[in-house]
Amino acid sequence: MKTIFKVGVCVAAVAVLAGCQSTTTGQGRVVSKDGKNSQSVTFQVTEEFLDDGAASAVATLSSGEFFTGKLVTEKKQTESVEDGFFYDDDDDDFFSSSSSTTYNSRAKGVLFSAARSMQCQITLSNPSSGFSDGGVGECKISTGETVPVQF
Q1: Residue 141 and residue 118: Cα distance in Å, rounded?
Q2: What is the pTM of this model?
Q3: pLDDT 10s digits, 50-88
Q4: Is the dihedral of CA 69, 71, 46, 16 positive or negative?
Q5: CB 134 within 8 A of CB 140
């Protein structure tokens, strides 16, 4: 009986962890140095639930060139411990603690293709939800083009 329970808990934990990834798609357009739109760009950002704020990103140009890398959202975690006393017959002390996480609304990163790089800065609509709630920003390609992007 105990073994069946342990196996069931492990299977449930693996199923939950496997489902803790989300992929968000974004769209952009390469704007040349002279201000003309040249080609479309599709972004795919994959976030892991248990990750530390870094998301894997792939930007694919309509020409077939693709850039890969990470987009990072800074987050700050704070913890506080408060002592309290609760008197009962056992003379047990009662302690409470809390923690909170604050997310920066800006995600930054560098993506690389075989020949060029792309620096991105994205402002997230709801930073605690990551890219899945949307955002807007701009990427700059090392050859001078810009890419306004929306998730």
Answers
A1: 4
A2: 0.72
A3: 666 789 999 999 999 999 999 999 877 777 666 555 555
A4: positive
A5: no
* Predicted pLDDT of residue 70: 97
Of 63, 64, 73, nearest in space to 24 by CA:
73
For 105, the token pair is: 């609304």
Residue closest to 113 by CA, chosen among 40, 57, 47, 151: 57
- What is the number of other CB atoms lying within 10 angstroms of the CB of residue 73? 23
∠ CA 81-85-86, nearest 5°, is 125
CA atoms within 13 A on the CB side of 74: 7
Q: Which residue has the tokens 């997230």?
A: 124
φ, ψ (nearest 5 deg) of residue 86: -125, 120
Surface-to-core class of residue 68, CB atoms within 10 Å of its CB (0-12 exposed, 13-18 middle, 19+ buried): middle
Q: Which one-letter amino acid corresponds to residue 132?
A: S
Q: What is the distance between the alpha carbons of residues 83 and 73, in angstroms, rounded to a whole number?
A: 33
